[in-house]
From TrEMBL:
One of its GO terms (biological process) is protein secretion. InterPro entries: T3SS_substrate_exporter (IPR006135), T3SS_substrate_exporter_C (IPR029025). It comes from Arboricoccus pini. Keywords: Cell projection, Cilium, Flagellum. Gene3D superfamilies: secretion proteins EscU. GO terms for cellular component: membrane. Belongs to the type III secretion exporter family. It comes from the Bacteria. The keyword Transmembrane does not apply. This is Flagellar biosynthetic protein FlhB.
Amino acid sequence: MEETRQAIALRYDPLRGDAPVITAQGTALLAQRIETMARSAEFPSIATPASPRS
């Protein structure tokens, strides 16, 4: 099974709520673009291994 790259961008403002909010999400090329933009803005990034799908 082929792995598909996935990415999300979160915004967290403790004054506006208790939980982070998803501001962008994408797969494949869009995921790469989200990661590139995060790196260029020097935002922290967390990579996790792909989980098996049934």
